[in-house]
Design goal:
Elements lengths: L2 H21 L16 E3 L12 E7 L4 H16 L5 E7 L8 H15 L4 E4 L4 H10 L7 E5 L5 E6 L11 H9 L5
Parallel strand pairs: 1-4, 2-3, 3-4
Antiparallel strand pairs: 2-5, 5-6
Length: about 190
């Protein structure tokens, strides 16, 4: 690992630690998400090939990440507006510091999904397996949120580290992602 990559992962670890300190980790089970089309997939069961034939938005995020929380409403709106047969939206949840067990992470992510009304597929990535693979392919550099738009053949169309910015350099995840996705629809 390069020194820069090591620094980015160290910075990410510090952010995770800060989130744990601010939000805490409860041993109480969280509410399970309402069944509004939400599917929570284990990282070991995730296969990008399952989304071939659809435009796919992959969003690496964490419940502890303020910009990630800011991006969620845009992804929900896109899921509401775009046909599921043509567009897949997948949130890949990475853990907060100290919440790396799959069961704790499931409780946290399920509670977050319930609170925000997430209506797209989520992948639990407690060991960063999916995130590392996507970083290897498309260089996210450890930053979150990291959002990738793929065409129907699985080729990278666009990549955003942090909130997607519009041409005026303002955060606009809905406008930017919609602008990337809609021209790809057949």
């Amino acid at each position: 690992m390069s020194p820069a990559a090591g620094f980015r992962w160290s910075l990410l670890s510090l952010l995770l630690l800060a989130e744990t300190a601010l939000l805490g980790c409860s041993n109480e089970p969280a509410a399970q998400p309402a069944s509004v089309g939400l599917s929570i997939i284990k990282a070991s069961d995730f296969d990008l090939a399952d989304y071939q034939g659809r435009v796919t938005v992959l969003n690496i995020w964490g419940t502890w990440c303020p910009p990630c929380r800011d991006e969620v409403p845009a992804l929900i709106k896109l899921r509401d507006e775009l046909p599921a047969e043509q567009v897949a939206i997948v949130g890949i949840a990475i853990p907060a510091w100290g919440v790396s067990t799959e069961s704790k992470m499931l409780r946290n992510v399920a509670a977050f999904a319930e609170l925000y009304g997430i209506n797209y597929d989520l992948v639990l990535d407690p060991e960063f397996d999916v995130a590392r693979e996507l970083d290897r392919r498309w260089r996210m550099g450890g930053g979150v949120p990291a959002t990738f738009v793929l065409d129907q053949d699985g080729d990278l169309v666009s990549r955003y580290i942090g909130l997607p910015l519009n041409t005026r350099r303002r955060p606009d995840p809905y406008g930017v992602l919609s602008g990337d996705i809609r021209p790809l629809l057949r």
